[in-house]
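Bumping with the actual sequence this time:
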Amino acid sequence: MLPTLLVVVTIALVICLALLIFGGRNAPPARAPATAATPGTIPVARGGPDPELERRRREVDELKATVAELRGELKQTRKKLHDQREADRDGADLVKARAEVERGASQQLEVVRSELASALAEVSRLKGEAEAFRMRRPAPAPAPQPTPAPPAAAPPAPEPRRFRELSDTDREKIDRLEHLANRERTRSQELSAEVRRLKGRTETQARVYSVVKGELDLLKDKFKALEKRLNRTLLERDLLRRAIRDLEKKSGLAADRTELTADEVAASDRSVEERAAGEAAEIARRTRPLQPAAEPVPAPSATETSAGAEASLENAAAADAGGAPAAQHAEKAG
């Protein structure tokens, strides 16, 4: 019903548009005045509007109103058709969902029924087996009387061990082996002490190496900072010299010297070398080993080893404390 109405409204709308377009083109020309104007007479002006033009205008207004009404009806029809399609689609989706739910419920019901039937069959089988076992079970047999165990035989007395007396050769051999064992034990203790001493020395050297490496990294950073500062200073010097030259050209006055003399350069280099020598002496003093390598070092005991480790730790802490101001100085220089 709705599609047919939609087609009819569309056809009517097309017909109205065709009348509007082609009716204006085929309109008859305005009628000539009944009396032709003679050369000697003055044409008389009309007093009112043309009735044919008014009729055409009214027809056009009516057609426009009709077209507007048909457009409104077409919109309403399309809206109703869309609503009906949406309702039909929702109803179809609802029916499909209900069919799916019913199908799933029936499948689950069939599964539950089959499981219930198998469980009932298993229960009946177990009941039958229990009844058959109860009917076949014989009466309990009487418990047998315990028989006394025979007394265990007494174990034979162990024979006393007999030791052979040692000869002089055996005694000498035993003494020699004991002396050799004592000597090897003493040597093992000495080697253990030597190993501990070497381990402590290695740890000290490792700490010294770490300190020296840290100072080397600090010096590298200071050198980079100084190099950057020198580059900036050179650039500033070039800019100042150019500015001084420009001022001299503009003002006509000669400026004082801007370069150092040989004495000033030598004094500056001497101060830098003295400061570097002082820093090198301080580094050598901190990294100097605890004992000179030329003197013979006896095997240290456990107390000496612990004291050497504590001294090395104190040296490492002092080196770290001395490296902190140098790092701050390098940061300030940068």
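The tokens above came from a reply further down the thread. Confidence is low (pLDDT under 50) at residues 27-46, 292-314, 316-334.
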